């Protein structure tokens, strides 16, 4: 009996112990979960000179490693108004080999287990590993404020801008300046005496060295350092689910700018994670404000020690969220949110008759998208064609928009700069659309067909002739355009032109010229589109640079309002538009276009302009 009672008591005790153990384990697990999402913070007011702590970053692989940090002091207002900077010195572990390196931006610093801030600034060419640490309070504060939506307004466009063949990226204000690569600047004189943001290494895959050399100054001028990448392009994969281990403090994080057959990613370090919120870098990436860039985990191949500035080679892995804000004290991301990417397809036919198809996605951003697209198209051509000598490039395709007609691209370029001009011909309309100020602008897909030929196929319009000197309304006359090629051969294009039946008697001007020449003499200089549809229509109507157009003009009084020409206006309307109480809003014209037609493109890219007169008789 006693033995039975003892056995029962033992079972009850074991059961209770099990329940207590499970409860205790749950409490410990809960405490651990809270600790990973709510890291204790050391206020800036309590940061003192002489404090010692640790920092974390990834030197190789995906696991962060610790190294030592000594606090040297605090510099008030070093980053901006009421934005201070903590000065520290790193040592120990791998830091003794690398010092402060590009890609370390955002590495968290802890003192007594409390988060102090993110390593984010450095002295170039410093003999000791001195670093600037952005206080974590400032990182949180700037992102806790509700981000105001972009206040976009339709902007004015010039027709010269729409017809331009040279793409000049407009860098965002406040971007970091890499003084070592900016020419004609006095900044290098003090480059070693001032804190600078730690550069952001950009890893490229699929890009030739020629492309990197050409675009490196543009990238470096905003604090981005091109580095070679190991391996192929990053695969286009859907958003992956995150867990409690995803992007914790000290982990390597990348912003995937391009992925697919091409890969381009910017590397940094996570400062801390709070649930779905990710805080990183400790300084701006590009100071974009509100952004929408893919955020991915990454593995570090190695950190390359460098006399100027060491950098890490990071390879992106799983996309787990989106970088939604880019501010002065860091970047902010959200796990589980998928970014909007723009799919791009390039079909390339080389001068050797080979065909290549490249598929990739580009991040959607008003500033970055045109620049990245320009680089990708340029690289696609140079990677498959010779780098020196003259060539002729033909590019055709569609830029598809949501709820709008597509923008049509049809250009040809010849000569030594053909490749650069062809890549710009794709980037320019994308730049115009994204910076138009219309909130509904959404590019859904870009498809381009690129054909390359060896050698120059250029020609000049030498003279024109008419088959008669007089013509009646409703009749047709013929223009003969004499064109001389770069090899000296001359060929003729014959263009019939019909005079409208209601044309009054008098002298008409007959003009034949290439699209760029006629666009430059057009009285329509600039306009503000009323909506996105009007902008798309105007872009599609821009004259092409590689062919001739025939126009007839007559002297008349008219006006251009916006993008529309209003010819033959009666004196009363002109007086209303231009009186003592009003000014501006229209452009007066003295020449009115009666007819205009596009001449069938020839084998050559033709330039030049010629003008004759013809009499209309009754």
TL;DR?
With 618 residues, this protein is an alpha+beta fold. It is built from ten helices and 33 strands. The protein starts with a helix and ends with a strand.
Outline the fold blueprint.
Elements: H1 2-37, E1 52-57, E2 65-80, E3 83-91, H2 95-98, E4 101-102, E5 107-111, E6 114-122, E7 130-135, H3 136-144, E8 157-158, H4 159-162, E9 196-197, E10 200-205, H5 209-220, E11 224-228, E12 252-260, E13 263-274, E14 277-280, E15 289-304, E16 310-327, E17 330-335, E18 341-349, E19 355-363, H6 368-382, E20 391-401, E21 407-415, H7 418-434, E22 443-454, E23 458-466, E24 470-471, E25 476-485, E26 490-498, E27 506-514, H8 515-521, E28 526-527, H9 532-541, E29 548-561, E30 564-566, H10 571-577, E31 587-598, E32 605-607, E33 609-616
Helix pairs in contact: 6-7
């Amino acid at each position: 009996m006693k033995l039975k009672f003892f056995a029962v008591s033992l079972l009850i005790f074991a059961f209770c112990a099990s329940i207590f153990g499970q409860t205790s384990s749950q409490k410990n697990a809960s405490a651990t979960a809270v600790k990973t999402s709510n890291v204790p913070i050391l206020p800036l007011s309590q940061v003192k000179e002489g404090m010692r702590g640790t920092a974390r970053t990834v030197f190789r692989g995906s696991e962060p490693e610790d190294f030592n940090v000594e606090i040297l002091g605090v510099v008030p207002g070093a980053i901006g108004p009421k934005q201070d900077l903590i000065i520290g010195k790193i040592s120990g572990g791998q830091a003794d080999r690398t010092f402060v390196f590009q890609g370390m931006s955002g590495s968290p610093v802890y003192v007594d287990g409390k988060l102090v801030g993110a390593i984010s600034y450095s002295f170039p060419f410093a003999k000791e590993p001195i670093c600037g640490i952005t206080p974590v309070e400032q990182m949180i504060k700037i992102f806790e404020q509700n981000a105001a939506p972009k206040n976009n307004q339709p902007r004015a466009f010039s027709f010269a801008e729409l017809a331009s063949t040279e793409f000049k990226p407009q860098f965002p204000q406040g971007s970091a300046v890499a003084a070592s690569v900016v020419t004609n600047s006095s900044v290098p004189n003090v480059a070693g005496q001032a804190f600078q943001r730690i550069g952001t290494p950009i890893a490229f895959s699929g890009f030739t060295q020629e492309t990197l050399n050409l675009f490196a100054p543009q990238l470096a001028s905003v604090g981005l350092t091109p580095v070679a990448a190991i391996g192929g392009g990053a695969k286009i994969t859907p958003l992956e689910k995150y867990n409690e281990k995803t992007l914790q403090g000290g982990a390597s994080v990348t912003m995937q700018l391009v992925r697919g057959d091409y890969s381009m990613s910017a590397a940094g370090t996570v400062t801390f994670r709070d649930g779905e919120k990710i805080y990183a870098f400790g300084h701006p990436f590009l100071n974009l404000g509100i952004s929408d860039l893919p955020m991915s985990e990454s593995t570090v191949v190695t950190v390359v020690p460098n006399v100027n500035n060491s950098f890490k080679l990071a390879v992106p892995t799983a996309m787990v969220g989106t970088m939604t804000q880019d501010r002065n004290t860091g970047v902010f991301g959200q796990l589980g949110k998928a970014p909007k990417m723009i799919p791009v397809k390039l079909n390339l036919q080389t001068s050797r008759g080979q065909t290549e198809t490249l598929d990739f996605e580009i991040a959607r951003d008003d500033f970055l998208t045109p620049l990245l697209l320009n680089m990708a198209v340029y690289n696609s051509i140079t990677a498959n064609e010779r780098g020196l000598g003259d060539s002729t490039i033909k590019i055709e395709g569609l830029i598809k928009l949501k709820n709008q007609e597509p923008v049509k691209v049809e250009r040809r370029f010849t000569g030594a700069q053909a490749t650069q001009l062809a890549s710009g011909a794709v980037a320019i309309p994308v730049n115009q659309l994204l910076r138009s100020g219309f909130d509904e602008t959404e590019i859904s897909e870009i498809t381009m067909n690129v054909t390359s030929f060896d050698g120059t196929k250029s020609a000049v319009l030498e003279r024109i002739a008419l088959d008669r000197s007089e013509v009646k309304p409703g009749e047709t006359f013929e223009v003969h355009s004499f064109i001389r090629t770069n090899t000296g051969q001359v060929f003729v294009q014959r263009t019939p032109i019909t005079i409208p039946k209601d044309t009054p008697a008098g002298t008409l001007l007959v003009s034949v010229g290439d699209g760029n020449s006629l666009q430059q003499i057009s009285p329509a200089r600039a306009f503000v589109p009323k909506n996105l549809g009007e902008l798309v229509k105007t872009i599609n109507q821009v004259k092409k640079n590689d062919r001739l157009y025939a126009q007839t003009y007559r002297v008349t009084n008219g006006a251009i309002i916006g993008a529309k020409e209003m010819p033959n206006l009666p004196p009363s309307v002109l007086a209303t538009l231009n009186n003592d109480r009003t000014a501006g809003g229209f452009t007066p014209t003295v020449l009115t276009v009666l007819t205009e037609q596009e001449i069938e493109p020839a084998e050559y890219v033709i330039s030049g302009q010629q003008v004759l007169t013809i009499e209309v008789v009754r």
